[in-house]
Amino acid sequence: MVSILLFFSMATVFAQIESGRGATSPQTHRLDCLQPPYLKWGDKIALISPGYATPMENVEKTVNVLRRWGFNPVVGKNVGKVDAGKYGGTVEERYADLTWALNDPEIKAIICNRGGYGAIHLVDKITPADFTTHAKWLVGFSDITTLHGMESCAGVMSIHGTMSSALAAGGRDATSTLMRDLLMGKVPRYELPPHRSNQLGHASGVLVGGNLCTFTPLAGSWADATACDNFILFIEEVGESMHNIDRLINMLRLQGAFKRCRGVVLGEFLECRSDLSYESVEAMICQYLKPYGIPVVCGFPGGHDKINLPLVMGAPTTIDVRPDGATISFDIKGEQVVVKTASVTAAPVE
Questions:
Q1: CATH superfamily label, 44-186
Q2: Left, alpha or beta for 187 (phi > 0: left; psi -120 to 50: alpha)?
Q3: H/E run at residue 39
Q4: Quick one: DSSP state of residue 30?
Q5: Chain CA centroid to CA 128, Å
Q6: Edge-to-edge strand list for the sheet holding 158-160
Q7: How far, in Å, CA of 73 to CA of 42, rounded?
């Protein structure tokens, strides 16, 4: 009986492989994400720490910034706790703050205090319904890339942008004010100067990605936004060697991500060690992307450097890469505002 069952099982596997189905060609889908409502004066914004802890001094300064902006900040009850010397509380405490912020209908947006590591602990605890019942903007970057993947796969847009760790400096820099303006309905249309590693072309798709080391391990989970079809991939990294970045890019390649990808935006690669003889991290990544014939925008000021311009994750996005430069635009509701990235500095704008 076992041999007969094995025969039919193997026959089924071979038939699936022959027909292009099965594990060798997983079913994919298109992301269709809901745009949360924009904020207005007096709206409540939750501050939580789903990854590493941040000093309460930073949280208190961020509270003051948000109040000056006209919002009503509310700090999660477990913010300020530290577990294992790093995390912003135990897994259960971080889960409690995240689900409170997501499910409280009076909370209109969530700003994470910092990244670090730890949001991956929450993937198998949170459900898509947590994001969709009261759809709202979630803001953060770095380790918060995990939450962006979860929210995109649940079908809700989010904002890859600055957190309390930077807002505590006063919130008057362009990075902070552009994020504030986006929360209130001013949608940036980015114009970038030419870059020697750019790959020319025009493409549209749903924007996914973020920190490379953070979203790559999500493969196979429900939060893997790169498992969808027709996406634009954003990548940034900090403190990784070239060979580690090479490994992660090859993981994406072997998973077929670049066959489903319509274009790529490369952000900052801060303090990434040159242990291979490539001209740059961008040049190394582009050698893998070139065979796919997709456009690549290099040098977007987003990631771990002082300038971290906001991006709308899960939004229908168009990139246009030309010899004279590139544009990144989001096809969502709101007032379109042109932002020339070459003129943006980290200096105060107010």
A1: Murein tetrapeptidase LD-carboxypeptidase, N-terminal domain (3.40.50.10740)
A2: beta
A3: none
A4: B
A5: 17
A6: 72-75, 44-48, 107-112, 137-140, 158-160, 311-313
A7: 9
Helix (H, G, I), strand (E, B) or coil at 297: strand
Of 5-14, 173-182, 286-295, 333-342, which range is least confident? 5-14
Among 116, 104, 107, smallest CA distance to 183 is for 107
- Taking CA 266 as the corner, what is the angle to CA 119 and CA 160, rounded to the nearest 5 degrees? 40
* DSSP structure string for 80-116: T--BTTTBSS-HHHHHHHHHHHHH-TTEEEEEES--S
pLDDT band with cut points at 50, 70 and 90 for residue 165: confident
What does the pLDDT look like over 136-159, one tens digit per residue?
999 999 999 999 999 999 999 999
The predicted-structure confidence for 193-231, as pLDDT tens digits, reads as follows: 999 999 999 999 999 999 999 999 999 999 999 999 999
50 near 98, Cβ under 8 Å? yes
Please provide the DSSP assignment of 199-236 as one string: B-EEEEEEEEEEEHHHHGGGTTSTT-GGGSBSEEEEEE
Both tokens of residue 150?
Answer: 């979860």
Per the CB < 8 A criterion, the answer to whether 269 and 303 are in contact is yes
Q: Read off the pTM.
A: 0.91
Nearest to 165, CA basis, from 68, 56, 92 = 56
Q: With a cut of 70, say whether residue 279 has pLDDT above it.
A: yes
3-state secondary structure (DSSP) of residue 298? coil
Homologous superfamily of the 190-343 domain (CATH): LD-carboxypeptidase A C-terminal domain-like (3.50.30.60)
| pLDDT for position 27 | 57
The answer to whether residues 118 and 94 touch, using CB atoms and an 8 Å cutoff, is yes
Question: Structural domain boundaries of the chain?
Answer: 44-186, 190-343
